[in-house]
Design brief:
By secondary structure, this protein is of the alpha+beta class. The chain is built from five helices and seven strands. 42% of the residues lie in helices and 21% in strands. The strands form two sheets. The protein has a four-stranded antiparallel sheet. The longest helix has 46 residues.
Amino acid sequence: METQIEFVAEPPAGVEMVGGQPYMRNSSGHLVPLENVKAEHLLEDQAVRKIIGYAEKLSAEITRFRGHAFDDVATFVELLAEKYGGKRGGAKGNTTITSFDGCRKVVVAVQEQLSFGPELQVAKDLVDECIAAWSDGAEPELRALVAHAFQVDKEGRINRAALFQLRRLDIKREPWPQAMTALGDAIRVVGSREYVRFYKRPNPRGRWEAITIDVAAA
């Protein structure tokens, strides 16, 4: 006689009722009778679903909190603008607001998203020409920086920090300035993204500590 598994309420998450019998769907999409699922696999499934359930709720809560944080800062800035006829904030919309005791602060930062146009290849060719043409050669550090700057990573991204470091080098010999002009022309601002960060410290002379909301860094 077959064992009948009955549920007084709804079947637990991950269990499907077919013809009055409980099944679980495996990774191939096939329905497996619940009685044929190993106990350890069932426990693992339940643990994962429980954790993911909490994670989804927490993620939604953090999303709402992030929106409220941006709204609160924006409202404060708008109130100041109405009162003083101006806008409080730094370059590109960066804003920092601080508690009266100087021990808590909220920082809204705007980070530009950059892309590089076809001028980048022209800049690379000119930089290579510089190194090859200079009779006294180039310093090994410069060669390494150039190689690092124009290297594409696994995601197809250029090393932006190294490229900007190249632009800061004070080299007057031609065609280096021409190469840096091409590099500057290659930069495209394709969008921006806002970040909000939170800090606290024990007293006004203490060191700021970030309030961590990132689960991986908590």
